[in-house]
Each structure stands twice: as structure tokens, then as C-alpha cells.
Amino acid sequence: MNNKLMLYKFLAIIMVVALLGACNSKTALPVSTAVPTEIVSNAAPATIVSTENTAPTVDVNLIRTQAVQTEIANLTLTAPTATPVTPTSTDTATPTVTLTFTPLPPTARPTATWIPWTSTPVYSPTPISFACSVTDYYPKSTDSFKVNTAFDGRWVVTNTGAQLWDQHQVDLKYISGTKMQTKADLFDLNASVASGASYTAIVDMTAPATAGTYTATWAIEQYGLNICTLNLSVKITN
Fold first, then answer.
1. Residue 71's domain spans which residues?
2. What is the reported pTM?
3. Closest CA to 48 of 75, 25, 28, 73
4. How many angstroms separate the CA atoms of 145 and 191, rounded?
5. How far is CA 142 from each of CA 17, 21, 98, 145, 228, rounded to the nearest angstrom?
6. CA nearest 3: which of 102, 66, 82?
7. Is the pLDDT of residue 104 over 80?
8. Number of folded domains in the chain?
9. What is the pLDDT of residue 224?
């Protein structure tokens, strides 16, 4: 807006100068003896020409020029100062991210300690120390029972070894075949059996519910060793 105002003022001055130029080159004016009171800032004083016999004259062209110069100087002094604008820029570049991998220190593994293998001694009695013979048993293979009938399985055995059968260490144990026992699969002896003595092992049984011939195997054991095998075979009828 200020720039336009300055332009309008400058054009007005030019028009004034052009109008004044259209007049005659010089016009004689009477000059008073008094000193002019209007002084134009920043302009040289007007030259007054005088002679002895004629009235002094004013140089109009010089006055026009000085007026134009004075107005141009005023416009220059009042011209607004442009405020510099700081350019702004938008960084559209995509930042580059660099990933740095720092390996973790390896985890210490425990060192295996070698332990030499040591065998655990197992007591294995020799046949001479533990042995037996079956002298009698019941039922025989020729005996028969009705289905679901209770009976006893019975074996008479003799300790033919040199070692005592300790009743707390020697067991009567079911091995295989048809399970006809009514209480358990493992029994302690009722008494210890010395070498050369006999012992009667008895198991409560019940005949199966279906007719047929059934067998079972039991044994006398000590320390996991089979001292004597006891077989059973029974015929069941309706």
C-alpha cells in the first residue's frame, strides 16, 4: 500500500513539472528587498539576478528542479523499510535408521563331572544254598470243581538247600496263568523253614464261572531268586 502511495506522489510531481514547463521560459517578477521566509530543505538557494537599471528576475526552471529534487528526497526518506522474510523449508527426506546389533555374551555352561560307574552288589544265592522239591500238591489234574466253587490251592515243598528260608524274606508269589486267588498275589511264609524241613503253602481260590481246564503258576522266591516253581491245573464243570 505504501509503495502505491509513493508512486502516486511521484506521478503528481512529474505532472506539475510538465505543466510549469508549458509556461514561458522566464517571467519577470518584482523582487522585494525582504529575504524570502520559505527555505526548501536539502535544496540549494535560488539564484536572484539583478541589474542596476532593471528589477531582479527569478529563474523559474531552477525553482522547479529544486522542488522536484526536494520531493524525491522526501519520498526516499519516508519509504518503508522492507522486513526480510526468513525462508522456511520443510525437510521431506526420510531419515535413515541404522540398527546396531550387539551380541550378548555367551552363557557359561556347567561342566559335566564324570562319575565312574560302580556296580551295586546283588545277593544271588547259589542253587546249593537255596533249593527245594515239591512232594505233594492239590488239586491234581484229574480233580474237577463246579463253576464258582471255592477250593484251596495247596503245595507241600521241602527245603533241600543249605540255607534257612526266613519267613520275612521268602515269599509265595503268583507268576502267571488264570487268576483264581481271592485275596492277594504275594504272601509271606507263615514260618521259617530250616534246611531239610517241609512247608505247606496254601492259597484260597475260587473256580472260574465258565467250564474248562485252567492252569496257574506260582513260586517260592527269596531276593528275587526263584527257589521253587509251583504249578496248578484244575478242571471246571457246570
1. 2-29+40-78
2. 0.47
3. 28
4. 30
5. 164, 169, 96, 10, 23
6. 82
7. no
8. 2
9. 83
